[in-house]
C-alpha cells in the first residue's frame, strides 16, 4: 500500500492565485521511517514557507520532487509506503 | 573516507533537520524546562527571526518569552545582562554580528566582565546569538563573521556550529552554562528557503535533549597528510576540498573547531603532530585573527612538528557587495585545495 504526499491539501488559502512552488527542504531521506503528522518537507510558495506533514505512517519510498525542485499546485511531492 | 558531517546520535533517527530548526528545537526545549529562559531580539516574534532563529516559538510561548525589542541593541543586550544577573536565563539576539559595535560596551564590559568585577557576587548566564557570514551580496556591513573580535575579548565563551546536530547540542550547552556564551550561527548554513545551504549542515537530529560540550573540536574527516582546521561554512568547503584532493592521493584531515573560546588546542596539535602540515581556513579577516591564533598555538607547543603552514582567510578589506568580488575574497573550495597543495 502506498499514499501520495499531495501538495493540494497543504496549499494555503491566501495563495489561491498562485500555481507554482518549490521544495525548499526535505527532512526525511528516501527509505526513512515517518510517523503520520511528522514534517516531511518544507515548500515555498512565493517566499512563504509551508511545512508538509506525512499523511500516513510508513516509509518514504520516493521524493517525487527533489530538493530545490519546482512543482505545480496539485503535483505529488512524494510517496509513502504504508503497512 | 569522510564520516557523516555529524554524529547521528544513538537510536534510529530518520528525521533530518536544517540548522535553524535544530537550533529552535533546543531553545523550545529549554524554554519548556525552565520558565526563566526567554528570547529577545529584533523581528524574533511574529517574523520568527530574519534567519529563522526563532521560527515557530510564538506558536508555543507567550509574547513575554519571545520578545520583539526596539532597535536599541545597547538597551536590550543590557536588559539581558541584568536579567541574567537577577537569575533568569536570557537569550538575546544581535541580528547581524556586524552590529555589535552599537552595543559593544554591554557585551565586553558588562556581559563578559560583570562576574569578575563583582568578585563573583553575580554571574551572567546568558546566551548572545548572532548571525554571521556572507556570500549572498549583503555588502561590507552585513557579511562579516567577526570571529576574531568576539574571541579576543576575555570573559565569553564563543561557539560556531556547522551542522544541525551541533547547533542543537551547542544551544543546550549554551543555555545551561552559568557564564555567557556567544552563539554565532552562519546564515548560509541555516537552511532557509531563500538562501540555499550546502548539503552538509542538514543532519539527523535526535528528538531527545543532548549537549555538545563547549570547547571540543570535532575531527570531521581523518587523514594523514595535511590538517585543515576551520569552522562554520568553511567546514563544508574543506570537506569538499578534501574529497577532491583524495582523488589525487592527498589524505586531508578536516577539523571543525566548533568552539573558539575555550579553544581545543589539543585536537589541533594531535592532528598536526601526525600530519606535520597545517592549513587554517577562516571567513574572518586574516590579520590578528583566528588563523594567526591557531598557527601560534601550534607553533608555541609543537614547533618541531610544524613542517609547513598556510592561512586562507578574507584579505584585510571590506567585504564587497559585487558577487564576483565577494567570491574572490571569501575562501572557496579551490582556494583550500590550492593551499593544501602548496604545503603538501
Short description:
Chain A has 83 residues and is mainly beta. Chain A has strands at 2-6, 20-26, 33-34, 39-45, 48-53, 58-63, 70-72, 76-81. Chain A has one domain: OB fold (Dihydrolipoamide Acetyltransferase, E2P) (Beta Barrel).
Molecular structure report:
The complex is a heterodimer of chains A (83) and B (344). Chain A is mainly beta and 83 residues long. Chain A is built from no helices and 8 strands. Chain A has strands at residues 2-6, 20-26, 33-34, 39-45, 48-53, 58-63, 70-72, 76-81. Chain A is globular, with a radius of gyration of 12 Å. The mean pLDDT of chain A is 93. Chain B is an alpha/beta fold and 344 residues long. Chain B has 2 domains: 16-204, Rossmann fold (3-Layer(aba) Sandwich); 218-343, 3-Layer(aba) Sandwich (Rossmann fold). In chain B, 33% of the residues lie in helices and 20% in strands. In chain B, the strands form 3 sheets. A 7-stranded mixed beta sheet of chain B has the order 3-2-4-5-7-6-12, with helices on both faces. In chain B, strand 6, helix 6 (164-176) and strand 7 form a beta-alpha-beta unit. In chain B, helix 1 (19-33) packs parallel to helix 6 (164-176), helix 2 packs parallel to helix 3 (104-111) and helix 8 (265-275) crosses helix 9. The relative contact order of chain B is 0.13. The A-B interface holds A 22, 24-29, 32-34, 38-39, 42, 44, 47, 49, 68 and B 12, 14-18, 21, 191-194, 196, 202.
Oligomerization status of the protein chains: heterodimer
Number of strands of chain A: 8
**Separation of the first and last Cα atoms of chain A:** 7 Å
Q: In CATH, what is the class of chain A?
A: Mainly Beta
CATH class of the largest domain in chain B: Alpha Beta
Identify the CATH architecture of chain A: Beta Barrel
Helix percentage of chain B: 25-40%
Overall mean confidence score, pLDDT of chain B = 95
- Low-confidence spans of chain B: pLDDT under 50, at least 5 residues? 1-12
Order of helices and strands of chain A: EEEEEEEE
Number of helices of chain A: 0
Largest interface: A-B, 17 and 13 residues
CATH fold-level topology of the largest domain in chain B: Rossmann fold
Structural class of chain B: alpha/beta
Report mean pLDDT of chain A, rounded to a whole number. Answer: 93
Q: Compute the number of helices of chain B.
A: 11
Amino acid at each position: 500500500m502506498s499514499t501520495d504526499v499531495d501538495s493540494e491539501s497543504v496549499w494555503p488559502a491566501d495563495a489561491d492565485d498562485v500555481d507554482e512552488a518549490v521544495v525548499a527542504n526535505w527532512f526525511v531521506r528516501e527509505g526513512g521511517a515517518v510517523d503520520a503528522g511528522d514534517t516531511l518537507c518544507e515548500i515555498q510558495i512565493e517566499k512563504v514557507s509551508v511545512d508538509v506533514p506525512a499523511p500516513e505512517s510508513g516509509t518514504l519510498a520516493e521524493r517525487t520532487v527533489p530538493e530545490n525542485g519546482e512543482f505545480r499546485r496539485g503535483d505529488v511531492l512524494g510517496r509513502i509506503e504504508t503497512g | 573516507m569522510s564520516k557523516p558531517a555529524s554524529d547521528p546520535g544513538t537510536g534510529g533517527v530518520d528525521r533530518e533537520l536544517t540548522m535553524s530548526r535544530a537550533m529552535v528545537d533546543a531553545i523550545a526545549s529549554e524554554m519548556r524546562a525552565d520558565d526563566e529562559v526567554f528570547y529577545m531580539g529584533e523581528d524574533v516574534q511574529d517574523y520568527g527571526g530574519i534567519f529563522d532563529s526563532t521560527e515557530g516559538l510564538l506558536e508555543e510561548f507567550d509574547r513575554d518569552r519571545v520578545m520583539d525589542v526596539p532597535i536599541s541593541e545597547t538597551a536590550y543586550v543590557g536588559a539581558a545582562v541584568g536579567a541574567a544577573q537577577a537569575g533568569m536565563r536570557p537569550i538575546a539576539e544581535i541580528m547581524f554580528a556586524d552590529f555589535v559595535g552599537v552595543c559593544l560596551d554591554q557585551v565586553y564590559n558588562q556581559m563578559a566582565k560583570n562576574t569578575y568585577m563583582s568578585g563573583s557576587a553575580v554571574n551572567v548566564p546568558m546566551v548572545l546569538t548572532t548571525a554571521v557570514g556572507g556570500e549572498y551580496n549583503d555588502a561590507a556591513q552585513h557579511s562579516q563573521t567577526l570571529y576574531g573580535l568576539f574571541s579576543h575579548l576575555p570573559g565569553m565563551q564563543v561557539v560556531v556550529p556547522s551542522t544541525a546536530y551541533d547547533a542543537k547540542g551547542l544551544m543546550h550547552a549554551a543555555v545551561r552554562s552559568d557564564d555567557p556564551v556567544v552563539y554565532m550561527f552562519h546564515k548560509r548554513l541555516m537552511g532557509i528557503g531563500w538562501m540555499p545551504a550546502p548539503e552538509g549542515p542538514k543532519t539527523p537530529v535526535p528528538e531527545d535533549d543532548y549537549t555538545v560540550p563547549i570547547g571540543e573540536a570535532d575531527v570531521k574527516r581523518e587523514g594523514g597528510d595535511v590538517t585543515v582546521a576551520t569552522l562554520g561554512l568553511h567546514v563544508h568547503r574543506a570537506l569538499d576540498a578534501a574529497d577532491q584532493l583524495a582523488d589525487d592521493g592527498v589524505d586531508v584531515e578536516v577539523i571543525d573547531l566548533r568552539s573558539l573560546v575555550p579553544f581545543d588546542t589539543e585536537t589541533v596539535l594531535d592532528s598536526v603532530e601526525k600530519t606535520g602540515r597545517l592549513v587554517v581556513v577562516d571567513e574572518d579577516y586574516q590579520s590578528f585573527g583566528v588563523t594567526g591564533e591557531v598557527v601560534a598555538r601550534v607553533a608555541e607547543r609543537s614547533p618541531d612538528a610544524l613542517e609547513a603552514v598556510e592561512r586562507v582567510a578574507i584579505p584585510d578589506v571590506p567585504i564587497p557587495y559585487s558577487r564576483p568580488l565577494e567570491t574572490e575574497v571569501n575562501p572557496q573550495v579551490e582556494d583550500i585545495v590550492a593551499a593544501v597543495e602548496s604545503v603538501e
